[in-house]
Amino acid sequence: MKATDNLVPMALSSEPELNHVNALIARSIGGDRNAFRRLVESHERYAYAVAYRLLHDHEDARDVVQEAFIRVWKHLGGYRPEIKFTTWLCKIVVNLCYDTMKAQKRKNAAFGPTRSNDGCVDVADPAGLERQIEQSDICERVLMEARKLPPLERLIFHLRDIENCSVEEAAGIAGVSVASVKTNLCYARKRLRIAISNMEAGS
After folding, report:
1. Which CA distances in Å does 116 have to 6, 147, 151, 153, 190?
2. What 3-state class would DSSP assign to 109?
3. Which of 3, 22, 115, 166 stands 20 to 30 A from 84 (CA)?
4. Residue 128: pLDDT band by 50, 70, 90 thresholds?
5. For position 126, what pLDDT does the model report?
6. For 51, what's the count of Cα atoms within 13 Å in the CB-facing half-sphere?
């Protein structure tokens, strides 16, 4: 997989045929390792894309994917069919990435900018920020700046502005309240807006 693949959004709705997936899950729960292998093979690219876009490190992303499918195997009996498998898998991957980011932050006290005391001023024109992000000439630089965000802000930004999750979906995956999603997204967009302005001023 090319590093640039992480710039291509992968919709949560692009999972294989639901009945086929549920059949593989049922057989896997029954102990069919071949069925589980096929389940992994049909979803590992998606899991890797989510992990890499959050961690920006191939080794860390691969480690997360491996651990994610270990957890899927262990907890597959608790999977509820009314939830899309990709949504369930995404939550596992994101939680592991979040743990990795927090561990990295503990190892590096300088990770990410410190929060200012001037309060949260939401982006006046979120659509304008999205248009800037979509421009190919700065997309990669914006994603690099996103790596500097504090872990929760980085996670929420990824879910909302990269994965296009709804506020409610982001809250469920991140395990936080809807209010927390809105607040952290506000801070993340503000930081990135400043970074983009600085990049434009320096160009």
Report:
1. 30, 18, 16, 14, 11
2. coil
3. 3
4. low
5. 54
6. 27
**Identity of residue 22:** N
The tokens describing 83, both together, are 């939830």
Q: What is the pTM of this model?
A: 0.61
The per-residue pLDDT for 173 is 83
Q: DSSP strand E in the chain: where?
A: none
Over the range 64-80, which residues count as b (16 or more CB within 10 Å of their CB) and which as e?
Answer: bbebbbeebeeebeebe
Report how far apart, in Å, the C-alpha atoms of 120 and of each of 6, 108, 187 are: 29, 25, 6
Structure tokens at 18: 């639901």
How would you classify residue 9: left for phi > 0, otherwise alpha for psi between -120 and 50, otherwise beta? beta
**Rounded-to-integer distance, Cα 130 and Cα 116, Å:** 23
DSSP 8-state symbol, 116: P
Distance linking the first and last C-alpha atoms of the chain: 31
